[in-house]
Amino acid sequence: MPERKEKEREDSAARARGIWSGTVTFGLVSIPVALMPANRPGGPHFRMLGPDGTPLARRWVCSEEGTPLSVDEIVRGYEVRKGKWVVVGDDELEALEPKKSHDIELQEFVSCDDIDPLYFERGYYLVPAGGSTKAYALLARIMEDTSRAAMATFVMHEREHLVALLATNGILRAELFRFAAEIRTAEDAGLPEPKKPDPARVAALRRAMGALEAKALDEDLLRDELGEKVEAAARKKLAQKRDVVEVEAPPEPEETTVDLMRALRKALGSRGPGRGVAPARRAGSGRPMGGRRKRKRGAASAAAPEEGS
Amino acid sequence: MSARAIWKGAVVFGKSRVPVKLLSAVEESDVHFRLLHEKDQAPVSQRMVRPDTGEEVPREQIQKGYEVERGIFVTFDKDELAALQPPESRDIEVAQLVPRGSVGSYWYERPYWLAADAGGAADYAALAAALDAEKRDGVVRWVMRGQRRVAVLRAHDGHLLLVTLRHTDEVVPPSQLEPPPGEKPDAKEIRLAEQLVSALEGRFEPDRYRDEYQARVRQLIEAKARGRKLPKREAPRRRRAPASLAGALEASLRGTRGRKSA
After folding, report:
1. How far apart are CA B121 and CA B115, in angstroms?
2. Assigned domain for A276 exists
3. Are A194 and B136 inside 8 Å of each other by CB?
4. How do residues B117-169 score in pLDDT, each as one tens digit?
5. Are A174 and A160 in contact (CB under 8 A)?
6. Do B63 and A49 lie within an 8 Å CB cutoff?
7. Class assignment of domain B7-26+85-170?
8. Residue A302 Cα, gap to closest chain B Cα (Å)
9. Is the ipTM of this complex over 0.95?
10. Which residue, A136, B27, B64, B168, has most beta carbons within 10 Å?
11. Which domain holds residue A149?
């Protein structure tokens, strides 16, 4: 898991220029595209500071000797049985990497209704990269009209990935899927065979459901409440000059969803500020989306280590 | 290999309380390496140090700093942070019931199964059946590990599936974007593309796809554990594409004839 977060962070750093570029192919049609992340890691973000406020760094030490280690002294091992390690070198793993490829080859189109929410891992937008946008528009339109998603595998970050391409509002998105081997089905999880429901109980529940029915998700439910509270508490302490530490060379400011949205709009060739009007405000929230974290989580994570909440 | 419950609570809905256990629907299957000190093959561990002196800072002296202005951190201790967390609760509250599939998948974060806990099997089955009959998904929230979670509650073949959702400041939804401007496809291209999409129609069968890289890493470890080498891999295939969009569509259609029976 920390590795995954780390990966998402790397994605964040590279997002402005698109983190992958290549070609979507279906049949013999090819569409040059770049991939840009649709998500960024969230949660109130803290830095580890020493007693005098110095941002701390992480160091590796040997668990036996307690001595600090340099990168050259560290190898990667897999424990095949207790205490018995197989050491695997970078070159050995590189040899196993999939052959570099710049194609997302759409293998089949499936009904959007059949796509199981179990598999979604994280999302990217596809933005047209050079030349005509006609084939892009055509694919998005057909997929929306027919309510289809396209399944494909492709190579990114030296790994094979499974994606579902989805179209919304004329925009193509690649949702990275977990491979089936990473998913526990209900059976894998040990869930018992479903019981036959009692019709009277079902009817009672259905009657009670009316009160909670809504047309669409209330996005206000998705506000980061903890993040807002931490921000408010930090502002209060700052005003009272309590527990305030100034750091001389703070790491680079972190990109927010607002930055990401601007980059996406630019890459999609949007002419105006767009419907949302940047920075977009969320319904019921006075705060710009992601504005709270405007200055956070720089690239210099080695110098000042980070910790999620 | 039945999974262990990571949380227990109850889905609260109107007057009913359905006791449930939460199980992860994700099993990290990637080969997980440890970092070792090469000399003695002892696993390495992490320490926090001052970057200028390399001096180790013991855990109890480390403060958590929140950057409130550029370069200005406000520190919090454990108790202060705990006080900001939402109150503990065992309730999974149903906040909304929305049309099935209407929550944008760009919000999805991670799936969990709900299993009926002691005495809850009948209500669990009824809740799954009622959601299914109404063609609705629940939008639910609860507090787990000091954090408020929001998820879609979906009836899934008689079981209940929870898919947690990301916060609004973690996602750029498509509604905030506009499609790329430019030339629109003509009627012929649309018709050809429709035909091509239907020729390439398939069923959603994600278990057909495998992470070959992980399989190869596993093979490598097994081979090395026995002191053997791995066989070589074959090179991938290539193909050419015609120039015009309509031409490419037509050529593709010719290529797909007869594929459906395959």
Report:
1. 8
2. yes
3. no
4. 999 999 999 999 999 999 999 999 999 988 999 999 999 999 999 999 999 99
5. no
6. yes
7. mainly beta
8. 9
9. no
10. A136
11. 2-58+97-181+224-307
